[in-house]
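Technical annex, item 7. During the second reporting period the consortium partners agreed on a shared format for inverse folding records so that results from different sites could be compared directly. Each record opens with the tokenized structure and is followed by the designed sequence. A conforming record, contributed by the partner at site C, is shown below for reference.
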């Protein structure tokens, strides 16, 4: 892991890029005062943790995101480390994932500097197995298990940013069935070419509204 640092900002844990594709999607707003920015930051933090509402924040054309426990049961709470996220993409679903792509929340960080001038909250997820089938450890996702997505809300002074960092994104070629292998490549390659960018751009904008 490496800490990515932007000018004047807190250090954020984002995995080092070493294979496959990567992307960074950022939306920034500037507030009139520090107090106004803190208030807006706190609202954005709560929205980031409400994974079940990401679809509402992103708009009707986005994927659907649903928090579940380790057995696939739907959860109605704010995101916690160890939760799974069931991703319902437009189009054909994964057979391995019973129609869905799955990721697990492996890290949530909520940090601020001693001065209080900057702060961030980050959720990092990684492709996981299908919670309905504990005996199968293979990732039920179009990316393999090396890929991560880090969702960050960051405040520096009067500047507020929402970011998505995708790292080490490689197609998942491990499924046992050929249909999932073909599907994974058909989704992963266009995503690597930037076609997934509108999805994340809609989310980061929605989080800061």
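Designed sequence (site C submission):
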């Amino acid at each position: 892991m490496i800490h990515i640092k932007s000018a004047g900002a807190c250090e954020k844990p984002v995995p080092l890029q070493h294979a496959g594709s990567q992307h960074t999607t950022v939306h920034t707003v500037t507030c009139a005062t520090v107090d106004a920015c803190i208030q807006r930051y706190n609202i954005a933090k709560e929205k980031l943790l409400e994974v079940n509402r990401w679809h509402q924040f992103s708009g009707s054309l986005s994927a659907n995101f649903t928090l579940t426990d380790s057995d696939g049961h739907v959860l109605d709470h704010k995101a916690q480390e160890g939760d799974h996220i069931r991703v319902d993409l437009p189009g054909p679903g994964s057979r391995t994932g019973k129609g869905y792509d799955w990721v697990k929340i492996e890290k949530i960080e909520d940090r601020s500097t001693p001065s209080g001038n900057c702060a961030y909250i980050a959720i990092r997820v990684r492709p996981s197995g299908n919670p309905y089938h504990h005996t199968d450890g293979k990732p039920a996702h179009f990316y393999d298990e090396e890929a991560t997505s880090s969702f960050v809300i960051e405040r520096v002074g009067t500047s507020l940013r929402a970011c998505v960092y995708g790292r080490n994104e490689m197609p998942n070629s491990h499924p046992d069935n050929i249909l999932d292998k073909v599907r994974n490549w058909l989704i992963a390659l266009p995503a690597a070419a930037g076609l997934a960018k509108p999805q994340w751009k809609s989310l980061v904008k929605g989080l800061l509204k």
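Confidence is low (pLDDT under 50) at residues 1-9. The chain has four helices and nine strands. All partners now use this format for quarterly exchanges.
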